[in-house]
Amino acid sequence: MAWMMLIAAGLLEVVWAFTMKMSEGFTRPVYAVITLVAVIVSFVMLSWAMRSLPLGTAYTIWTGIGAVGSFVVGLWFLGESASPLRIAAALLIVAGLVMMKIAS
């Protein structure tokens, strides 16, 4: 159950990063509210996952899901650059996440 909470918390990190961008500095209220709710729920779920997962593992996986997920959302929805170096960096993050999961 802790891993499911952690994955959900990571996905919510992607949601709040995207909606924070869409809020344009918190000037668009709907996106601002979604951002704040997603941040709170993401942190609560992360804290629940940390009850049984090691701090280093949980935090690394959470931030990694958020980083790679936000990168992908940026590519698909915001038209951000998909340079080979950025893609290689994202793949290295994913490799690190897999290694972290295996190690725990």
Automatic annotation (TrEMBL):
Cellular component terms (Gene Ontology): plasma membrane
Alphabetized UniProt keyword annotations: Cell membrane, Membrane, Transmembrane, Transmembrane helix, Transport
Pfam families: Multi_Drug_Res
One GO process term, biological-process aspect: xenobiotic detoxification by transmembrane export across the plasma membrane
Main location: membrane
Spans traversing the lipid bilayer: 27-46, 58-79, 85-103
Any one GO molecular function term: transmembrane transporter activity
Cell location: Cell membrane
Topology versus the membrane: Multi-pass membrane protein
Family of the protein in this entry: Belongs to the drug/metabolite transporter (DMT) superfamily. Small multidrug resistance (SMR) (TC 2.A.7.1) family. Gdx/SugE subfamily.
Protein name (Swiss-Prot/TrEMBL): Guanidinium exporter
Organism: Pantoea wallisii
